[in-house]
Amino acid sequence: MPLPTFPERFNLADYFLFERLREGRGSKVAIRFGTHAYTYDDVARRTRAAAAALEEADVRRGERVLIVLPDVPPFAWVFFGTLARGCVVAMANPDAPLEGIEYLVDYTQATAIVTVPRVANALRERMRAGAVGRDVRRVWCVLDVAAFSGTEDPTGSCEIGDGMFRCLAQDLAAIDPTRAPAVTHRDEPAVWLFTSGSTGEAKANIHSHRDFAFNTEVYAKHTVGYAPGDVTVSVPRLYFGYATGTNLMFPFAVGATVGLFSERPTPESLERAIELYRPTVVTNVPTMLGKLLDHDQALRDAGKPGLDLGTVRFSLSAGEALPETLLRRWLDRFGSDVYDGIGSAEMFHIYASNRPGDIKPGSLGKAVEGYELRILPEEAEGPGSAQVPPGEIGVLWVKGDSVSHGYWLDRDK
User: Fold this and answer.
1) Terminal Cα distance for the chain, rounded
2) Alpha-carbon dihedral of residues 28, 30, 34, 37, nearest 10 degrees?
């Protein structure tokens, strides 16, 4: 396939969302959350309102908006609204210790934060004391509700509001949502993706608009084959780049439907999501694949029907090694493909993967078209070094058009 290119003036909110409206998909369901459903028109209207709210709060182009949310629908319109405003998305785990969230608030120099009331209230006390968030101009709160709790609406108003701290739903409802995405350059920063922090504090990879569109075209569309009729569900949470891609960006890029649940991922909560949404694509990790097999066996040992994965056409696996024996157990029991792959925050997403018709248990598959992979000696000084012989251990070097600009405030690394 010819590798994708993108115009100089390019914005991800337009690529992932507003283009679906021009395709006539406005009435298609974009997000399901428990009993609630939101069409592409619904998401677009709230996205425009979120961009307008950022402008009204004097959050300026290029500044960071820190999203600290569980997997609830407002995550989508805050994410796309930030991009539509020309601001930069940064994301954090709402269940992380407060000191970790505070670190990211100051590290990103965020001027706006969108989070749940319990995090906002904790930050408010620390901000009043001058201990954190000196750059912050606005904190918006979103209800932290469970998808399986009945009829609660995550877009409802929350009980918080004193100047800097506001209710997102109330502010969006009061704003005229008619606005077009900012005219951004394809190489302007769009999203910061964090490393795992396994060697110290997490570092932010600065990614531009085109990085995400490139991987979407070559991996999501061309390699594993996301399609408009897909319904997606994810074990990893949206704040993690793996799931931001597979359970938000990729389905939106083809006009598919995202199924969200905000509970902690367990075999039981994933079983409920699968029963409710009947997904065709499940983003997974090896640990949960094993737990699902054990859960399925326990159900059948108790004389109950096992897990019904009849609608799942493939699962994705990344983040840790997928043992060959585990994959074979899965294939023997459920018969649906698992595409194991490897990616990194530095490259945004997966650059080597198994794929339809080409699955090799115990292997990470082949390079995604558009990426070049080399295994070099640990002491190699550059990509021109000779590769290590087959069967020997080396360091993986990756080249592709989704590479980050570098780490924030740490160019040398």
Assistant:
1) 33
2) -40
How crowded is the C-beta side of 170, counted as CA atoms within 13 Å?
12
| The two structure tokens encoding residue 332 | 């023997």
Beta bridge partners of 204: 194
Report the distance separating Cα 342 and Cα 68, nearest Å. Answer: 25
Residues in a beta bridge with 371: 400
Q: pTM, whole model, 2 decimals?
A: 0.96
List the beta strands (DSSP E) in 225-286.
231-234, 257-260, 281-284
The DSSP symbol for 290 reads H
Model confidence pLDDT, tens digit, residues 127-170: 999 999 999 999 999 988 888 876 567 777 676 666 789 999 99
Query: DSSP for 371-410?
Result: EEEEEE-TT--STTSPPPPTTS--EEEEEETT--S-BTT-
Report the 10 Å Cβ neighbour count for 326. Answer: 18
Query: Which residues face 283 on adjacent strands?
Result: 234, 316
Contact partners, residue 53, CB within 8 Å, separation at least 6: 81, 140, 168, 171, 172, 175
Q: Report which of residues 73 and 179 the model is more confident about.
A: 73
Q: Measure the CA–CA gap between 228 and 27, rounded to whole angstroms.
A: 13
What the block records as the tokens of 346 is 């530095």
Phi and psi, residue 5, nearest 5°:
-125, 160
Do 349 and 373 meet the contact criterion of CB atoms below 8 Å apart? no
Query: 93-121 burial string, b = 16+ CB within 10 Å, else e?
Result: bbeeeeeebbbbbebbbbbbbbbbbebbe
Per-residue confidence (pLDDT) for residue 54, from 0 to 100: 97
Bridge partners of 84, per DSSP, are: none
